[in-house]
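Archive entry: two folds, one per protein. Generate the first.
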Amino acid sequence: MGVPPQLNVLSWIIFIFLCVWTGIALFATINPYYIWKITEGWKAFREPPRSYFIIRRIVSGVFALIGLSLLLLPHLLR
């Protein structure tokens, strides 16, 4: 007896979501200024202070670690 096809499709959707999540979080960790420019820069009159980008880098790094751990969790539980 195999895995139902609905479960297989759902697992692929979750896998793709986690890959996109982790990729965006890694990119935001590497270049938080570009992410700010895309999401908030168009409505700002001036750039935020340097501490804003440091905090954004830390938070996005945490989200990248969460994404990586969720991607690797099935392999670690075997």
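Generate the second and append.
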Amino acid sequence: MGPVAALLLVRNYLGCCLLPLWLCWAFPAAAAVDATDHDAFWLWSGVRTQPVLAQAKVLYILQGQVSRSRRHPGRGVELIAQGLPVSRLSQDQVWVVYRAHTLAWPETIYSQLLGQVQRWQDSGTQVVGVQIDFDSSTGELERYGHFLSDLRQRLPSRYRLSITGLMDWSSNGDPQAISQLKGVVDEVVVQTYQGRYSIPNYASYLPRLDRMGLPYKVGLIQGGDWQEPQALRDSPWFRGYVVFLQNP
């Protein structure tokens, strides 16, 4: 082997060795979401209390599910109570959350919801608002916007309105339908997970979230994969994280 060939061999060898190192530096591997790194959490029905809740400043507590009655079809839509009983919580901010499977709410549902929120407020808990957890498809965003506008008018002005959102809203949603949420919702918490696991291609959606023109938080699943892109921290719309707690 001549000196030139030897030099090329060494250079190629070093390049092969250094390339993985460069890739690790440029694109760091995702790490598991550690709840102790955060102070805002969803607390869902059936999830056991964890020590990390002692550091919580913000809690989103599930209080009910709005759906069509399966056990009693004649009753139409009903609110099924879930989650913690009304009690005094010490957190700085508490959001009362309702999981919706339908937007066809009768007046009784609104009355139950507002009554429940008031009971939490009367307990001494710092209730800052209501969150609606509804998996609206992009094609249903306009209808969802009308529903939220109506709900906003029903809520006392001291309460804020939060919603969960799907990552593809910013990519495939009708801009006009999304724009009607401005002035109606105070935040969108975008879910980067499905079930118990992070969505594998979440990173491809995150750069587009600013297109919504709405304040947003990013929802993470405890123990899921996550690598924060710098663009997220640089966004003027990004408001932090909410971790969905789950049992081991």
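Annotation attached to the second fold: The CA atoms of residues 48 and 138 lie 33 Å apart. Residues 3-27 have pLDDT under 50 and may be disordered.
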